[in-house]
Amino acid sequence: MTGGPARTAGTSWAEFGRQLRSLRRAAGLTQLQLGLRVGYHHSAVSKLEAGLREPPAGLVRRLDAVLETGGRLAAIVAAPHEVPRRPGLFPADPALFAPLPGADRPGGREAPDPGMWPARLPAEGLMCPLHGTAGCAVPGPGEVPGLLGGPGPAGGPDPGWGTGAERGADGVRAAVDEAELLHGLTAVLACLIREAFRHGGRVTAVEGLLRALARWAGEVNSAGRLPYGQLRLGAQYAQVAGRLRMERGQTGVAMAWFGHGLRWADAVQDAPARATLLSDMCTLVRLDGDPSSMLGYAQGIGAVDGRRRWTATLSDLYQARGHALAGDAAQCRRHITLARRGFARLGPRDLLEAPWMAGAEGAMRVDSAIGGALRDLAVATGDRAAARRAVGATARSRAQVPPQMRGARLLLTLRLADSWACAGDPGAAVALASEILPEAVRSRESMVTAELRGLHSRLTGRWADLPEVREYRRRLLDAGE
Fold this sequence. Notes:
Elements: H1 6-26, H2 31-38, H3 42-49, H4 57-67, H5 72-77, H6 144-148, H7 161-171, H8 178-198, H9 203-222, H10 228-247, H11 251-267, H12 271-287, H13 291-303, H14 309-325, H15 329-344, H16 348-353, H17 359-381, H18 384-399, H19 406-422, H20 426-442, H21 446-462, H22 467-480
């Protein structure tokens, strides 16, 4: 939705801002708290209240839901003097194409591994950005360089896979079928996700393609057409870029990518992408030890769409961890119960949109989140019964980790060891941790580092004089050399 006549901008948005401020204050929320609940920075809420910007349609609906207005804000947006618009036929807010995080540098030169190339979409949880779960075929890996690596605007040969992708996407619209290019870029991202299971994710390749995709979306938008497929795929690329940066401990850049992805998902009303991006934001603020922000984002997941059981389940899992960080045992356990109940009731539509919630993988993820919440609760409260329950949930999750998810197994082994330490059994903790200590010390993943740091704190803070803990410390020093 874009700005209408001058009267609309001068009258409608000023009135919208006044009403929003009044409703927010009546709800007892600060701009920061409201922003967290709807997934926007508090500065965006401030601009809305000042009448300085037009709110995206999806944001208006969420504001009405969070503030329980009965649709009052939506009624202002749909005032009679505003020209009716049909979804998908009008450009997006130009603010969506603000500068992207980090330096604009070429992507990786190596093509994705053709052995990991998907035959159809969805793949690795990535749906077709145009046709959803319809089962679209993708171009073969040999065809994609032809789509992406043609001469750029300045001419000349393609100097590398990543840079060719950037230049090719800039000049491809007249020569290549748009759907084929979007299918090809989705397949590339699926490959890069699969590669990340085996070795460090190629963040420069993801970000290089993402920048090309964003420029393409901006050009389509400037031509007067909503870049629907480009923004949907851009949200997926931004999520992967943010996750890769988060793994490296680069939390500021990670949050910036998640924020861009969230705005793009919102512009095209992509509820699944919105929910998963908010879940990544939960993880990021949890690493910073911020339960208040985590609960705000977790509640935002639940507000995405009340008809989707998987988003409600995800919301409860993250709320359980947020309350655990805050030391609220009753609320933590309540949301664990709701999450288990919701997971048991997931239906075909839920599993089509969130295949990673299905079967053994879904059970692994749910047990992992519950084990993490119970361990965090034990740390905050000293409750050894919660720690023993954390041992059970984490052990079940660890037993179901596929072999290729080496990083997940490493993280869960450290969490299981820490749960034993919280339960008062340092011997079991040391025995488990000793198996993977060198690999954990070498890991650059921020979540693994956080687990190792927590375990070390628990062991040395209480049992530093035990022989097995002294041996653990010696091995830790040896592993770091």
